[in-house]
Amino acid sequence: MSPRPTRPQGKDAAAGLLLGLSNVPGGLAMGVLAGVSPVSGLYGYLFGTLAGAVATSSVLMSVQGTAALAVLVSDVPGVDASAAGLTTLVTLTVITGLIMLAAGLARAGSVVRFVPHSVVTGFVNAVAVTIVLSQLAEFTGYRSPEGNRVARAIDTAATVASYDWPTVVAAVMTMALIFALGRTRLGAFGMVVAIVAVSAVIEVGGVNSVRQVADVAEIPAGIPSPDLPDLSLALGLLLPALSLAFVALIQGAAISQSVPNPDGDYPDVSGDFRGQGAANLVAGVFQGMPVGGSMSATGLLTAAGARSRWANVVAGAVMLLVIMFFSGVASLIAMPALAGLLTVVGIRTFRIDNVAMVWRTGGTQASVMAVTFLLTIAAPLQFAVLAGVGISVALFVVRQSNKVIVHRWLLAPGDPFPKEVPPPTELAADEVVVLTTYGSLFFASAPIFEGQLPKATADSRHAVVVIRLRGKEDLGSTFISVISRYQRSLVSAGAFLVLAGVSDRVERQLRGTGAMQQLGEANVFSATESVGESLSRALRRADTLRASPTDEDGQS
Question: Could you tell me the residue ranges of all domains in the chain?
Answer without folding.
Answer: 12-396, 405-547
